[in-house]
Specification:
- The complex is a heterodimer of chains A (280) and B (423).
- In chain A, 77% of the residues lie in helices and 0% in strands.
- Chain A contains nine helices and no strands.
- Chain B has three domains: 2-152, 2-Layer Sandwich (Beta Polymerase, domain 2); 162-304, Rossmann fold; 337-414, no CATH class.
- The chains are: A mainly alpha (280), B alpha/beta (423).
């Protein structure tokens, strides 16, 4: 039985703090009281602090950037996503956007538990700076896509209310429809840029390693496909056919593909091909 | 010191009577008429109410003066004025003023203008030198209470008229309306009103389209927009983000097929269509298009009604806020009531002290300047100590709202502060 990562209790605390945040944000969606959103943001900020402390302790203990294993990558994804939610809530006080994003950041941390137990020493050569940049950028892109999914959910709710001509309390709590659409497009475009840069830095790292071709790596293939899908969706949005509601649905679908796809690729293919034991 | 008010409002008087009593054009003259026997005065005159708020030492006399003042404003309708006139004193006045400033007494519950109007009335009274310490403190506290009501409750959140609902819809859809194009189809008064609301919300590109081009040009000139003839409508549909339609045409002028073409031309960028014509002038099928948000008059009316109901619910929360504020105001007024007595009592003691020192001046002539200063300080200290207990008791009694009046009367009689002298 492998040991849990160093200072794992901080990661557990970060996850535990996300749960009341999710409940409070969901409560806010039903009864929009400012105090609920503030309490939820405070819980998320505390979770972020615990998570940042965990990441720091992990890095100091290992003497490298803590981005070299599947668990560390997912942990970084959750960290960036939580930071995004806290930042959005702190600056814009939207409340309801948190109700869409906080469950996603909690789910990301929860996914981390699945990989924490297999988080033993990283494979040789994984401490390279190019690889660290690759993992950081890839996780940043996932976090941006996750935030985009939150914005897409908020867009669909707002659109439904305006189309149905019912001005429920959520209409006032959410940003205007066009602002949400722009936010979603920007998050998706930023996520795509980070993913492409992540793939590029990974490719540079592979050049120095004696590894099988990238095309044979299921994780690389999956991410290239995702980058292509996002690029196509963004291009179609610009030209018109995928504007608004359709773009929101496509963003949600692509996010679901990334979220579950990464999980499945890691689970069934063992992540990157070079991480698999020889002969597997 | 008493607080007295009298006035008429939309609840007691029709618009004709309110017009007859309106003070705006003769405000200075009215302040002049109400100078005798009234220490402080604020006159409030809006479309929906005309009220006078006064501070006076004799409440009955002041109330009678205010009534007579209002009756004199419409001499040919005195019986009507008497019937419409209401009055209030002290706590009742405070509660009324709090409700008025917080828009709980307005014709459109929660409308935002009234607070500004009360502030303006107060500022005019300040400029005219008719506000003293009581109304200064009182109105500032009332403004703070009204602001709290707007921020802590949803009373002002939901627009309650059709044009303001339309403007809010546009903001919910587009956010900032700057740079947004508004096409006004027809020359209905309501369409113009909606357009004005959109302009005040930030929309800055207006286009007027009318069957009569001169009429469209006239509207465009008035609102600094541009004019179109009806024959140009289909081609122009791709331009506006918001279309406001109010014509008397018997059949739809905006066809779904033309809207669909416009949507393609603008790359499916969303459009808000407000159709306030009866019969409707925008084909309802256009509302089924994905990026078209179509609201007709019934939809807007339903939203306005829903909003009025929400405001009514919020008004109950607002009253809870105001009840808390009323308690604070009562305490403050009670404390303010003893201030003149406290000042007079302190002045009386100081006068006695100064007089006694002056009388003893020749007997203290041998003292040095430093010793004389010591004697002066000593007598001041004695007076301060003697006054400390009674003044504290007076202030405490007033702050507790336990009726400081008997104590005030006692103090004034005992020390001859009531102007009757001590014989």
């Amino acid at each position: 039985m492998p040991n849990p990562p160093h200072a794992f209790w901080l990661y557990q605390a970060a996850f535990a703090l996300q749960l009341p945040a999710v409940l409070l944000f969901v409560g806010y969606a039903f009864a929009p009281r400012r105090a609920l959103a503030l309490a939820a943001t405070a819980c998320l900020a505390a979770s972020l602090a615990a998570h940042a402390g965990f990441t720091l302790a992990l890095g100091v203990n290992a003497g490298r950037l803590p981005l070299a294993s599947g668990f560390e990558a997912i942990s970084f994804w959750g960290l960036v996503l939580t930071a995004l939610v806290v930042q959005v809530e702190w600056r814009h006080r939207l409340g309801l956007l948190g109700a869409f994003l906080a469950p996603l950041s909690a789910a990301t941390l929860l996914m981390g538990f699945r990989f924490a137990k297999s988080a033993d020493l990283p494979a040789p050569g994984l401490a390279d700076a190019w690889l660290a940049a690759h993992v950081a950028l890839a996780m940043l892109s996932y976090a941006l896509f996750t935030a985009g999914a939150g914005a897409a959910g908020a867009y669909l709710v707002q659109d439904r209310q305006l189309k149905a001509k019912r001005m429920g309390p959520l209409v006032y709590e959410l940003p205007p429809l066009q602002d949400l659409e722009r936010l979603l497009a920007r998050l998706s475009a930023a996520g795509l840029a980070a993913l492409v840069l992540g793939l590029a830095t990974g490719w540079v790292w592979r050049l120095g390693m004696d590894l099988p071709p990238a095309a044979a790596d299921p994780k690389v293939a999956f991410n290239v496909a995702m980058a292509g899908a996002y690029a196509l969706a963004l291009a179609l949005r610009l030209r018109g056919p995928l504007r608004g509601r359709r773009f929101a649905w496509i963003s949600l679908a692509l996010f679901a593909l990334i979220f579950f796809g990464i999980y499945l690729v890691n689970l069934y293919f063992g992540g990157h091909a070079f991480l698999r034991p020889q002969g597997a | 010191m008493a607080l007295v008010m009298a006035g008429v409002s939309h609840k007691t008087a029709g618009v004709e009577l309110r017009e007859a009593l309106a003070l705006d054009a003769r405000l200075e003259e009215c302040y002049g008429q109400l100078s005798q026997g009234i220490d402080e005065l604020v006159l409030l005159s809006t479309c929906n109410r005309v009220e006078a708020y006064a501070v006076a030492s004799d409440a009955d006399a002041a109330a009678a003066r205010l009534r007579a003042f209002f009756e004199a404003l419409a001499p040919d309708r005195q019986a009507l004025v008497r019937k419409a006139l209401y009055s209030a004193r002290d706590e009742e006045l405070l509660w009324h003023l709090l409700r008025v400033a917080s828009s709980l007494d307005s014709m459109v519950l929660g409308e935002p203008q009234i607070l500004g109007q009360v502030k303006q009335a107060y500022e005019r009274a300040v400029d005219g030198g008719r506000v003293g310490p009581v109304f200064h403190g009182l109105f500032q506290r009332v403004f703070a209470a009204a602001k709290q009501v707007r921020s802590d409750t949803e009373i002002g959140r939901h627009p309650a008229s059709v044009p303001s609902v339309a403007a809010q819809l546009a903001e919910r859809l587009f956010g900032d309306l700057r740079g947004r194009e508004v096409l006004v189809l027809g020359s209905g008064e309501m369409a113009e009103l909606v357009a004005e609301h959109l302009v005040s919300a930030g929309a800055d590109r207006l286009v007027f389209c009318n069957r009569s081009l001169p009429k469209a040009r006239e509207l465009a000139r008035r609102h600094k927009g541009r004019a179109l003839g009806l024959d140009e409508l289909d081609a122009a549909l791709a331009g506006p983000d918001i279309l406001v339609c109010s014509t008397g045409a018997p059949q739809p002028l905006v066809r779904a097929a033309a809207v669909q073409a416009a949507q393609q031309a603008r790359h499916q960028s969303p459009q808000l269509f407000i159709d306030i014509s009866v019969p409707r002038n925008i084909d309802p099928a256009a509302g089924a298009l994905e990026h078209v948000y179509l609201y007709d008059l019934d939809d807007l009316d339903a939203l306005a009604l829903e909003h009025r109901e929400k405001r009514a619910t919020a008004s109950r929360e607002a009253e809870t806020v105001l009840r808390h504020r009323l308690r604070e105001l009562k305490d403050w007024i009670a404390a303010a009531r003893v201030v003149p007595t406290v000042s007079r009592l302190s002045a009386h003691f100081e006068a006695v002290r100064a007089a006694e020192l002056a009388r003893a001046d020749h007997r203290l002539a041998h003292l040095s300047e430093a010793d004389r200063a010591q004697v002066d300080a000593l007598t001041r200290s004695i007076v301060k100590k003697l006054l400390h207990a009674p003044l504290s008791r007076l202030k405490q009694q007033a702050a507790r709202g336990e009726g400081a009046a008997p104590l005030v009367r006692g103090a004034e009689e005992l020390f001859g502060l009531d102007g009757k002298g001590d014989a």
